[in-house]
Design goal:
269 residues, alpha/beta, Lysozyme-like, seven-stranded mixed β-sheet, two-stranded antiparallel ribbon, 11 strands, binds zinc ion
C-alpha cells in the first residue's frame, strides 16, 4: 500500500519533472524576447535627469551641410529620461504568437500627443493593468525641442494598435497577442511630437510644430540607421481608420534637416 503510493507519487513527480523540462507544444508557442538592438537611439542617463545637453549641441554643431558649413541655427536638443511604468511597454519578440520567426527591419512611426507633453508623460508613468489601456512611445519631443526618453529602444512601446506597414516587399505586421489585431509595435520605434494648444481637439489640422521640434526630430533620426522609406506616420500604418496623426506635419522638412548629418547626407533607401 505504502509502496504503491510511493510509486504513484514518484510517477507523478517524474511526469511533472518531464513536463517542466519539456513543455508540450502548444499552438501559441512562448514568444522569444529580443535582448539588444542596434541602429536605434541609445537609452542615456538616469530616470528624471537631464542628460548631457552639450553632447547634443556638439553633435549638431559638427554636422556638416552638403557643400560646407553647419546647420543654422545650431539647435541643441535637451535630453530628459522619463521612464514609463513597466505595464505600458513590453518585450520585442523574435517570434510571433504562432511561434514563427519574425525578421522585420525597424521602422520609425511618428505621432503627436494631442495634449501637453506633461500630461502624456503622466499617462505613461501611470500603471495600467488592463491591456487595452496600456500606451507609450519610445520618445517624445516637446515644443521647446526637449527629447524625453520614455521606453528603452530594445523594448516594445505600445504606440499603435491595429496597424500594418506597407513596405516595398509587401505588408508587414506582427501578431504578438491573439486577443488583439496584429500591429507594427514589434519592429517600430515610436516618436511623438507635442501638439500645439490649438490642436488639443480632433480637427483635421492645427498650426503645426516648432522649428526646435523639427531640429530635435532630425537629430534623433540621425541617431538611427532606419532608412528614409521606413520613416512613417501613425496615420499611414493605422488600420483602425481612426488615427490621423501627426496632423500638419511636414515630413519633407524633417528629411531635409536629416540630410545635414554626414551619416544621412545621401538619402538612404
Ligand atoms: Zn499616434
Amino acid at each position: 500500500m505504502t509502496r504503491s503510493w510511493l510509486v504513484g507519487l514518484c510517477s507523478c513527480l517524474l511526469v511533472l519533472a518531464l513536463g517542466l523540462g519539456n513543455p508540450p507544444l502548444r499552438a501559441a508557442a512562448p514568444l522569444q524576447p529580443l535582448s539588444t538592438v542596434v541602429g536605434l537611439p541609445d537609452w542615456p542617463g538616469r530616470d528624471g535627469t537631464e542628460i548631457a545637453p552639450d553632447q547634443g549641441r556638439e553633435s549638431f554643431m559638427n554636422a556638416q551641410v552638403p557643400g560646407g558649413g553647419v546647420p543654422s541655427p545650431p539647435v541643441a536638443p535637451r535630453l530628459v529620461q522619463a521612464l514609463a511604468h513597466s505595464s505600458n511597454y513590453g518585450d520585442r519578440f523574435l517570434t510571433d504568437a504562432r511561434g514563427e520567426p519574425v525578421h522585420n527591419e525597424f521602422i520609425v512611426v511618428l505621432h503627436e500627443t494631442v495634449a501637453s507633453a506633461q500630461s502624456a508623460l503622466n499617462l505613461f508613468r501611470t500603471a495600467h493593468p488592463r491591456d487595452q489601456d496600456q500606451v507609450s512611445y519610445h520618445s517624445l519631443i516637446g515644443r521647446d525641442g526637449t527629447i524625453y526618453y520614455i521606453v528603452p529602444p530594445e523594448k516594445r512601446a505600445f504606440g499603435a494598435g491595429n496597424s500594418v506597414f506597407d513596405g516595398p516587399e509587401g505588408p508587414e505586421t506582427v501578431l504578438t497577442n491573439p486577443s488583439f489585431p496584429p500591429s507594427v509595435n514589434n519592429f517600430a520605434y515610436h516618436v511623438s511630437l507635442e501638439t500645439p494648444r490649438d490642436g488639443f481637439n480632433n480637427r483635421l489640422r492645427h498650426s503645426g510644430y516648432t522649428r526646435a521640434q523639427y531640429y530635435s526630430l532630425a537629430w534623433l533620426l540621425a541617431q538611427t540607421t532606419v532608412p528614409d522609406h521606413r520613416i512613417t506616420t501613425h496615420q499611414a500604418v493605422d488600420r483602425s481608420g481612426t488615427r490621423r496623426d501627426p496632423r500638419s506635419f511636414n515630413l519633407q522638412r524633417c528629411l531635409t534637416l536629416l540630410r545635414r548629418y554626414p551619416s544621412r547626407a545621401v538619402p538612404v533607401s
